[in-house]
Write a structure and sequence with these properties.
Blueprint: H1 3-8, E1 15-20, H2 35-52, E2 57-61, H3 74-87, E3 95-98, H4 103-113, E4 117-120, E5 125-128, E6 131-134, H5 137-146, E7 153-157, E8 163-165, H6 171-182, E9 186-189, H7 200-209, E10 215-217, H8 226-230, E11 235-238, H9 254-271
Parallel strand pairs: 1-2, 1-11, 2-3, 3-4, 4-7, 7-9, 9-10, 10-11
Antiparallel strand pairs: 5-6, 5-8
Organism: Acrocarpospora pleiomorpha
Pfam family, one: BtpA
InterPro entries: Aldolase_TIM (IPR013785), BtpA (IPR005137), RibuloseP-bd_barrel (IPR011060)
Length: 272
């Protein structure tokens, strides 16, 4: 089932920490006075705390590029490549990238930096807070092949945040057809926004219909829920809980990282 997970991570039930980059050049919230140096300094502080706290992987994203675009401007991925490049010597665990909400740009960034995976919305058409959200997985898959990025794993967010599928289809059917027709390397199940709890029934439904494709819980995992959701999910992606006071806008807090990872280690020990 999760052979590629075993190749990338040295443990079952991997926990991937989000490293939310500050607003970037071109974003409304960009701090022109602090510039790129300030972005790198904060990212390096957070990376140190996440790695020291024991996470299994880290994913760099432009989370503070609000409001998001479904087709990003080149400056976004270019700047992310510079930031990650400056931190490369400090990264000691597997990493992935996510250029919100642009699958093609995410793959380009992964290829440029050596990231092992990307997470994005690759399939479906949605009514979203960002307008009509249309995807083209066939085009993206061919772009991935054309640039030699077949080794970059694609994590499909099958329940997009801030959006609703335009066609009234049940989640079980969406899962089955996505696995069959779009060839994802993993599926991610989310709540409405970053930090919001993922619906457990939705998570179960996706897991039950995903066949051999690994399923990640994508939002809202906390220290007190990690054991429960990872009892049937194959891994977790955690961002907000790892922040100081559990607030989205804050920097990572090593003590909160250790708290959640301790819960996960308990689960792993029981499984062994």
């Amino acid at each position: 089932m999760s052979n590629w997970l075993g190749e990338v991570f040295a443990t079952p039930k991997p926990v991937i920490a989000m490293l939310h980059l500050s607003a970037l050049p071109g974003d409304p919230g960009y701090d022109a006075k602090g510039g790129l140096d300030a972005i790198v300094r904060r990212a390096r502080r957070e990376l140190d705390r996440l790695q020291a706290g024991g996470v299994d992987g880290v994913m760099f994203s432009n989370e503070f590029s609000l409001p998001y675009m479904t087709r990003t401007e080149p400056i976004t991925a270019v700047t992310m490549a510079r930031v990650i490049g400056q931190m490369m010597d400090d990264i000691t665990i597997p990493f992935g990238v996510n250029v919100l909400w642009d699958g093609r740009a995410s793959i380009d960034l992964a290829m440029a930096t050596g990231a092992k995976w990307v997470r994005e919305i690759f399939t479906g058409v949605y009514a979203s807070d960002f307008g009509l959200w249309d995807t083209n997985v066939g085009e993206v898959a061919r772009h991935r092949s054309r640039i030699g990025a077949g080794h970059v794993r694609l994590l499909f967010n099958i329940v997009p945040e801030s959006a609703k599928y335009l066609v009234d289809r049940d989640l079980a059917s969406i899962t089955k057809t996505t696995v069959f027709a779009a060839l994802p390397d993993a599926l991610c199940v989310s709540g409405p926004t970053a930090g919001s709890a993922t619906d457990l029934e939705a998570l179960r439904t996706v897991k039950q219909n995903a066949g051999d494709v690994p399923v990640f819980v994508n939002t809202g995992v906390r220290a007190d829920t990690a054991e429960q959701v990872l009892s049937f999910a194959d891994g977790a992606i955690v961002g907000t809980f790892f922040k100081k006071d559990g607030r989205f806008e804050n920097e990572a807090d090593e003590s909160r990282v250790r708290e959640l990872m301790s819960s996960v280690e308990t689960l792993r020990t029981v499984r062994v």
